[in-house]
Amino acid sequence: MDVNKIKEYLGKDWEAVSRLLASSLSSDIALLERVNKGILSAPGKQLRPVISLLVARVCGGGKVTGDSIRCAAAAELLHNATLLHDDVVDDSPSRRGIPTVSAVLGRRSSVLLGDFWLVRAMDNILASRRGGSRLIRVFASTLSDLAEGELLQLEKSFSCDTGEKDYLRIIYGKTVSLFRATALTAAFSVKASPERERAAEDYAVNLGYAFQIKDDILDYNGGDGIGKPVCVDLKEKKITLPLLGAFRNAGPDAEKEVRSKLASVPSGQDLVGEISSFVREKGGVEYAEGVLSDYVSKAVSALGVFPPSKEREILESIAYFVS
Q1: How far is Cα 266 from Cα 153, in angstroms, rounded to an integer?
Q2: Element (H, E) at 8
Q3: Residue 288: what pLDDT?
Q4: How far apart (Å, rounded) are the C-alpha atoms in residues 295 and 67?
Q5: C-alpha distances in Å from residue 152, one per residue of 168, 170, 182, 305
Q6: What phi, psi does 98 have (nearest 5°)?
Q7: Which residues share a beta bridge with 95?
Q8: From the CB of residue 102, how many other CB atoms can be counted at a distance below 10 Å?
Q9: Can you tell me the distance from the alpha carbon of 232 to that of 292, in angstroms, rounded to the nearest whole number?
Q10: Bridge partners, 99 (sequence order)
Q11: What is the secondary structure of 76-116 as a DSSP string?
């Protein structure tokens, strides 16, 4: 999947989102302007606004509205606001191979910049004409879900008693909720039918679960040599699906022993090698890959409501790419 080619296909709609992102972040404060331009110059895939525009088109018969552009921009602004805050929480030195704002300018600057991006996201939501209070409620609930997901993960990193139900709630808050908001608000922006709203929501929720599970798998195997750091979550004592899958296959006694060890050390760093081997030996990654495949299938199936189109085809390809 080549996201740049998708952006080219989206053409003027994508150009409008890019212009709105730049204008939304404009400031007469030199430091703020310089840092914002730096972030926009290395934006990553920008998958959420891409999905937002694609969903608006499949829901709206190929056309988007001004609100579609605003919702797409808001999704990207909100996503980056959470990254700026996450870099402080995780003390991250770099992101996408570039030093983080937190590392360069300090934690306070990263928090304040994240707040700025968040407010500008809400400005775009409030400027939207369609969706009304429903639009605001979706983004408000997403902010609540994001905070709850992070706090639940923090709580469980101390107790080391994360179960699969806890894990799914955590990743819903951290990742799935924003995918859901991205697609649902895009559907609102073109006044989609209730059936199409539900289909867009189902697609995004299942895609969000698949997206995070894939990331958690990569945390154990490094993406087959693509250079992604491994076991970052484990070092922070975060129990994710590959380890939960290994627990299922190993039985309660082995699970109890591993959880006890993980809970007893100040950092998961000391157990990285041992637990990584345990996950591989007990088929934890394979278990997670099976769950991932199920979510991808559900995401693709949800698109069956929409008539065949290039946009639907691209949304399917995004889901398959995650797998």
Answers
A1: 16
A2: helix 3-24
A3: 97
A4: 29
A5: 11, 6, 23, 35
A6: -120, 140
A7: 98
A8: 25
A9: 20
A10: 94
A11: HHHHHHHHHHHHHHTT-SEETTEE-HHHHH-HHHHHHHHHH
**What is the structure's pLDDT at 233?**
84
- Quickly list DSSP for 240-278: -HHHHHHHHHH-HHHHHHHHHHHHHSSSGGGGHHHHHHH
Closest alpha carbon to 272 in 321, 308, 229? 229
Whether 241 and 227 have beta carbons less than 8 Å apart is answered as no
**Which has the closest alpha carbon to 23: 33, 8, 11, 35?**
33
Which residues in the chain come in under a pLDDT of 50? 224-227
d(CA 39, CA 51): 20
Residue 104 neighbours by CB under 8 Å, 6+ apart: none
CB neighbour class for 61 (10 Å; exposed up to 12, middle 13-18, buried from 19): exposed
Q: Which tokens belong to 18?
A: 């890019």
Q: Report the candidate in 98, 94, 84 with the shortest Cα–Cα distance to residue 25.
A: 84
Q: Rounded to whole angstroms, how far apart are CA atoms 116 and 1?
A: 32
Q: Is the dihedral of CA 249, 254, 256, 262 positive or negative?
A: negative
List, in order, residues 6 or more apart from 7 with CB less than 8 Å away: 14, 46, 50
Produce one character per residue of 193-202: b if its CB has 16 or more CB atoms within 10 Å, e if not: eeebbebbbb
DSSP 182-246: HHHHHHHHTT--HHHHHHHHHHHHHHHHHHHHHHHHHHHHHHHHT----SHHHHTT---HHHHHH
At residue 323, the pLDDT reads 76
Single-letter amino acid, residue 201: E
Which residues have a Cβ under 8 Å from the Cβ of 315 and sit 6 or more positions away?
A: 51, 54, 55, 58, 203, 303
**Does the global pTM surpass 0.85?**
yes
The CA distance from 234 to 267, in Å, is 9
Eight-state DSSP code of residue 29: S
**How many residues can be counted in the chain?**
323
Q: Are 216 and 233 in contact (CB under 8 A)?
A: yes
